[in-house]
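Hey, I was hoping to borrow your eyes for a little while. I've been puzzling over a protein and I'd love to understand its fold better. The fold is given in discrete form, as structure tokens running alongside the sequence. I'd be grateful if you could look everything over and explain what you see. No rush at all, and the record is pasted right below.
>
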Amino acid sequence: MNLTKVDALQDEAVRDLPEASHQDAIAAFGDQFIGRLSMQGLLDNIRNSRRAFVPTSYYGYRMGTNVGFVITAGEGAQPEGAPAIGSDFFVTDACGILKNAPDADDTVERISRARARGDQIVVLYGGSTMMGIGSRVPNFTIASLVEKILEQDHGIRAVCVNRGIAGAYCQDALNVMMAELHNDQPDCVVFYDGWNCCHNLMLNKFFRDTGPFEGKIPIYRGMSLRHLEHDTILHHHFDIQQVFRHGWRLVGTGLLTSISRLIPFQAVNRSCAALADRFFSLKNNIHFDANALWQSAESEALARESAEDYWRIHRYSKGVCDVADVKFVTYFQPVTWWGEKPFSSSELAYIEASRAVEDDHVRFYHEVSRLRDQEWFVDLSDTFKNVADDVYIDSGHLNRLGNLFVARAMAADLAVRLGVERLNESKT
């Protein structure tokens, strides 16, 4: 083990990263930098968000191509007493794949060079945690860190491809993998999931049990909340009342957006955004009676059947990889309400803030873990068992130090899997 280099990563992980540190990378990115994305409902932010996260009926969302943007995690939703999170800078390449560094070559070029050298190719799928919320810069996403640690700590040169995308769950990962496995031709596919799978799978099962959404829109196994949002929009496309309401919201939001441009003061922008969200909201989030689900008498059965769906999707994913002669591994991601960790005061605040949905998540994690006796399933729930430092920035997203601990655990396991393959190749 190269202790000097690994310790240097940890020193960097705990060092404060000022907002100004993004500026050089942003300046170098030029016109392809689309700005800071937020939860504000003004048209400028909606348009920029759609350049970063492109809606698609099959995948839910895919990343935009050749764009750079900044996201402030947990904006406006931090528990009282929790420390400021800071902003995360992201960069995508010409294929809409997140880069591991702002100045990195496109993934296609990196994969091509790796194949020519005989290096390993590892593709990592996941949601916003894999994408890099909390990492501050692309160099400290889990994928980027695994790539560094594999070489520095284990002597394995690899290209780690970050196919994380905010909100994605295991079914989304399977859909993308089915479409992209031939192009990536990896040696190993990684699913890093659990958190998003919980609410997507449980809500899907809940909606299927209670009948068509809004009484008219059918729910199918494999649909995520994003798919349901798309189907809702299409369903109302020829409903004159819904079209009129949407047009009215567009007019109101457009007017408030114009005012915020004409009077470029932060207070005006915040006021216009608040009015847009209050009276002309264009957000199409699926609303439901959470208490009816979380406190349902059938919640244990719901968690059990949703866990069975989780395993079904992962067995399919492994089967696809087996046919393609690709290694497959799932890392079950740590969250605050599952596994052991000596929590800090700010982490306890995050736990308290998520208390309303804790029971159903715990049931789901319990049911998944109960069936975990699979060689390709690695439970990372206790990764922070002996870590007293802050690693969570909410109930599931990690800071740079948290990413580093997870990346070390992944790299140590992958080194064995990839090393066995390398040994077998040398024998033949």
Q: What stands out?
A: The radius of gyration is 22 Å. Strands lie at 33-37, 53-56, 60-63, 68-72, 87-91, 120-126, 158-164, 188-193, 327-332, 377-379. Residues 420-428 have pLDDT under 50 and may be disordered.
